[in-house]
Give the backbone structure.
Amino acid sequence: MSKISVLFVCLGNICRSPTAHAVFQSMVDSEGLSQHILVDSAGTGDWHLGHAPDQRTTAVAAQRGYDMSELRSRLVEIEDFDQFDYIVAMDNENLTNLEVMRPANYQGQLGLFLDYSQQIEQTEVPDPYYGGDNGFALVLDLVEEASAGLLAHIRSQSSWTTSL
Ligand code: 4NP
């Protein structure tokens, strides 16, 4: 059975999308779904290729028990549209960049991460890079909430969920 695959995308792939990658992977693992769901992240900008996540990001994530030590920044590639069922953008700028790249025959779901949350009214995960520490904690709050919504959505769409 093929896995459902999810790619989180932000600008630098060192703050928001690796946070989503780590949080969603942790949720998938703790719910015993790692054989069913593949998780990855990427950026639309190339300033930090190969770099580990930002230290401010890893610090707030570690406080809540998320390990990001294996993650490294990479660019979104056109092949990702062949690979991923869900391509999930952190903000409208990322989404616009992805829509420009999107092949006409892409059959997956391309959209905003926060649209998977029923609880959050804002639509974008704000870029924390040039702001203070509060911004990084807010990213984590939004990501935890939206991850729960995305996982519930995937469960509702997937035939394997009924057998679990
Ligand atoms: P991210 O944050 O898109 O959440 O990874 C940023 C990281 C780096 C830059 C901008 C945003 N930058 O301009 O280098």
Notes: Helices lie at 16-30, 55-63, 80-83, 92-101, 133-157. Residues 21 and 41 are 6 Å apart (CA to CA). The chain has one domain: 4-158. The pocket of 4-nitrophenyl phosphate is lined by residues 10-16, 47, 127, 129 (CB under 6 Å).
